[in-house]
Amino acid sequence: MHGATREAVFPHRHLLGIEGLSPEDINHVLDLADGYVELSRQAEKKRALLRGRTIINCFFENSTRTRTSFEVAGKRLGGDVINMSVAASSMHKGETLIDTAMTLNAMHPDVLIVRHPESGAVQLLSEKLDCAVINAGDGSHEHPTQALLDALTIRRRKGRLGGLTVAICGDVLHSRVARSNIALLNTMGARVRVVAPRTLLPAEIERLGVEVFYDMAEGLADVDIVMMLRLQSERMHGAFVPSTREYFHFFGLDYDKLRAAKPDALIMHPGPMNRGVEIGSEVADDIDRSLIRQQVEMGVAVRMACLEILTRDLGNGPPSMAGY
Ligand code: NCD
After folding, report:
1. What pTM value is reported for the model?
2. Which H or E run includes 52?
3. CA 143 to CA 241: how far, in whole Å?
């Protein structure tokens, strides 16, 4: 495919966030990902599309499912995937983010997948690198592939995104998943609610285009999708909730609270789950209503689609070390 065509289909060099994507961009990723769901269910799932390409997973923060999901996606498309666990590397020897970027750049990767504890760090890196960059989560800012996989999961089950009412519940304050999902669902014409105690909501959250509820029974009334968020204790300095027991009593999802939602409402959670804190085990494991396992499956397909899109006819730009 020629550069010009690629530009027209998905006019972005990186995937840093959902903000800035159009409904067409989002549908393009989801349509492509649908095909990769089918491929991934076959015994022979390998393609040669990314043969010869180097993908570096660069995680400055711990992760199991997202890192593995990108690794499976890259390998399934025939690329070479290298995992860099930066927690145990030079960052701790005092190297700056930019030095790390320059080092990686010199290895000529085609795609860099970055997770970082600081909001904005991935964008900064993308400005210094010659390759495509995918944000795998930056601080409490964005986690675009999570929102895309959630959208694919909903679209496949409900047949659409537009017109649905989605309640995002829990620790919205610390959640990049919530921010990316709010942006995506609003772009696609869904109605978004957030349900949380006041201490776990950012100031002026209404500005993001959501309806705010402080009570689960009210917030879940007649919703199509209940999206639960993990209580991110590792990002909290000080006490945001009195106790996890009390939190579960008021905001943890169980059948009692779920009764307020539509009878066919579906349950989602990005993982990792804290059972008995934000979600009860019976609802999490309810095979008719919980989409949590499907979310993981859709994650690989969505990441395959993103890798395909961002490596199409890269042209590789001007080599920054030309003449060296
Ligand atoms: C999320 C994350 O890391 O932002 N997890 C994930 O990517 N599946 C949410 C979380 O950590 O709670």
Report:
1. 0.93
2. none
3. 24
Pick the catalytic residue: 14, 143, 176, 230?
Answer: 143
- What is the reported pLDDT for 62? 85
Q: How far is CA 11 from CA 25, 57, 89, 301, 304, in A?
A: 8, 23, 34, 21, 18
Distance CA 192, CA 1 (A): 37
Residue range 70-76: average pLDDT? 98
State the pairing for strand pair 54-59/132-138: unpaired
**24 token code pair:** 């067409």
Give, for 170, the enclosing helix (H) or strand (E): none
Report d(CA 138, CA 142) in Å as an integer: 6
Distance 137 CA to ligand 1 centre (A): 8
Q: Ligand 1 site: residues with CB under 6 angstroms?
A: 65-66, 137, 143, 146, 176-177, 230, 232, 270-271
**CB-count burial class (<10 Å; 0-12, 13-18, 19+) for 222:** exposed
DSSP state of 199: G
Count the neighbouring beta carbons within 10 Å of the beta carbon of residue 146: 27
Which atom of ligand 1 is least distant from the CA of 61?
3
Residue position matching structure tokens 């890196």? 125
Residue 99 clears pLDDT 60, i.e. is over it: yes
User: 174: which DSSP letter?
Assistant: T
